[in-house]
Amino acid sequence: MPKAQKTKPSRGVVVKDVDANRFIRTYAAYLKKAGKLEIPAYVDVVKLSSANELAPLNPDWFYIRTAAIARRVYLYPGVGVGMLARQFGTGIRRGSRPVRHQPANKGNIRHSLQQLEKLNIIEHTPDGGRKITKKRQKDLDRIAQQVLFPALKKRD
What we know:
The chain is mainly α.
């Protein structure tokens, strides 16, 4: 993985330019620090898919999943709960039989989308699905720039 650049970008940096894992971790930390997300009561016992055996081990999994959902909605405007469930799904292990795809739990995805709507990060599209609002798109791009150019974050 190349080292982060320390110079100022020659053009605007968008979420597509940044490594997905680094952006999601940074945006999840931002959401946690803001403290505006309502965490569901069942967060410590719920599974993310019926294919999983256990609940997530990371206590901050809801922030990470919400940040990943925000990134997906940014990259694919008009995406809905069903499509996100397919994208976040996993293979179900069936012993010696072939693996089948199992979609993710839609309740967790729906709750994350509702929380992002309350924060005015996403909005409904006229054709169905959701998209990032223009104001929050700039915020996500600013966070992406801070991930790609960490030296600029310290100066500002």
